[in-house]
Amino acid sequence: MHRIDDHQTETFFDGWGYIGPKRRKLLERSWAGVFRAYLLEELPLAEIQSRFHDSLGRPSKELCAMLGVLVLQQLFDTTDEQTMEAFAFHTDWQYALDIRDQSDASMYMCERTLREYRRMAVESGIDELLFRTLTDKLLKAFKVPTGKQRLDSTHLLSNMKRLSRLDVLVSTIEKFLKELRRVHPGIWKKQMDAEWAARYVDDRKKGCFSRVSGEEVKKTLPSVAEDLLVLVRTFETHPPVKRMESFRWLQRVLDEQCEVRGEAAEETVELKEPKAISGASLQNPSDPDATYDGHKGQGYQAQIMETYSDEEDSPAPNLITYVKVERAHCSDSEAALPAIRETQERGCAPKELLVDTAYGSDENVQEAAQEGTELIAPTKGKPKKKDERLVLDDFETDASGEIVSCPAGERPKKTQISDKGVYSAKFDAGKCRRCEFREYCEVGRGETGYRLQYTPKQLRLAKRRVAEESREFREKYRWRSGIEATNAQLKRVMRIGRLRVRRLARVRHVVVLKALGWNIRQAVRAVKARIFVAFQRKTVWKRVGSNRLSRIHPVAGSTGVSVQDPTRVSLFLAA
């Protein structure tokens, strides 16, 4: 049985009347007031409501409050115990969630209840629905323009230890043997001897692998790989053991880290070279979803896209419109188009999207243009031998893509396009031999004579390189760096850099709701800024000294409280 309270109908007596007007005003202007005014009634209750029967069973906790708690927990990065206490005792949490009843049924929640609602949110994807629904509400409420946005990825670490290659093999074996002894004690006694337990299970911290370091690692790795092969071959014919998740990790590590040669009794195992191991390989059996990125290391990454304004005094806040958590080895080149398409479905797609070089392949630029978005990014690398000779970038072309003139000003004798779409421009051989650029011109360097051939893709890249040299491009692209600041703030303020959870689904839950929490913080800043601007417009200020302003009430003309904060003084003086 589900319970949903009415938060729209006004009551005869104000449930918050016991709070004085000044404290009430503080609540209304804080995050609690923003959440209650804009987001409380927008919570997607239908998804969580479907988990409960309409009439049978014990009544659930109030669903609106429970969904709100999931958001507030990530907004303030609290543990389950801290969340439970804040829900029970903090007035701002209760005001935000509109909990007027002082009974334990409304204001008490045990940790198990919180974990169960979080599990339902993770399994059904309610966390992503929460982000999309509430973010769209904030975009609409604060009239945030979404035509200009920027996208970048940031690296995340789950609650796992960074392991060396030897530690990965040993930890995987240890995890399997412990589970085997616990789940199938009969098979353990029949198949395993005391030596396996002594090496991998019993008192690992004082065991043989804790003292292995330096050059000894190279000698120890082959023997551990042989143990890994023995365990896989021993139990791959046991259906009960084969279904164990830890056994699947054994097989995965064997495939990723080793090469098995020979058959039957002559079967041997060799370790792969480090460069031959994929970034998608297992990094820690405690978090099998985490992978490896050669630049950033082990863990996950999040694709973050936010709005921005190129007006310095824009009143609209910058809000995150798209967030997606991926494994660390995933390429940024595949992230731009999903972001554009999802925001299109929600009606907040960008017309201009600033990204770095990794996102800006020619294919992505063309597909983004078909979706109605201009993907603005530097081209990757320089054209071949750009510093040594004249290349396609230096030739003038017309709107159709055909060459009009070479760097020396000579027009081609003949231009044509092949059936495969390859452009070709043939120049006069005599003029080319006498040209001052003949030593380093691309024309005449190949087997085709004094001819320049190029594809439409090469032409598009050449035009992009020319455009990147313009002042207009530099002025537009300089706003991309703001996403770096947002990612840094998410790690410092929202603490997404190092999380308390493991596995992809739970990492996604935390990061997505923390991104929503960041949007709420941005909305609060916008509310306070608007209040400040309104207050400034209704007040007359006069200078008192070099660094002091006094407020004069327009009606009575009496002098009010002086403002001595240099930051605020500078804002008033600049107005």
Structure in words:
The chain has 575 residues and is α+β, with helices and mostly antiparallel strands. Among the domains are: 21-124, no CATH class; 165-276, no CATH class; 392-466, no CATH class; 539-574, no CATH class. Helix content is 45%, strand content 13%. The chain has helices spanning 21-29, 31-39, 45-49, 63-75, 80-89, 91-96, 104-107, 111-124, 126-141, 165-183, 185-191, 194-201, 216-235, 239-242, 245-257, 336-346, 362-370, 429-434, 456-468, 471-477, 482-492, 504-537, 566-574; strands spanning 148-156, 258-261, 268-271, 291-293, 297-307, 320-327, 352-354, 374-376, 396-397, 403-405, 414-417, 423-426, 451-454, 540-543, 549-552, 559-563. The strands form five sheets. Strands 1, 4, 5, 6, 7 and 8 form a six-stranded mixed β-sheet that branches. A hairpin with a 3-residue loop joins strand 4 and strand 5 (297-307). Helix 9 (126-141) packs parallel to helix 22. The longest helix has 34 residues, at 504-537. The chain is flat. The two termini are 57 Å apart.
Furnish the topology, listing elements before pairings:
Blueprint lengths: L20 H9 L1 H9 L5 H5 L13 H13 L4 H10 L1 H6 L7 H4 L3 H14 L1 H16 L6 E9 L8 H19 L1 H7 L2 H8 L14 H20 L3 H4 L2 H13 E4 L6 E4 L19 E3 L3 E11 L12 E8 L8 H11 L5 E3 L7 H9 L3 E3 L19 E2 L5 E3 L8 E4 L5 E4 L2 H6 L16 E4 L1 H13 L2 H7 L4 H11 L11 H34 L2 E4 L5 E4 L6 E5 L2 H9 L1
Parallel strand pairs: 1-7, 7-8
Antiparallel strand pairs: 1-5, 2-3, 4-5, 5-6, 9-10, 11-12, 12-13, 14-15, 15-16
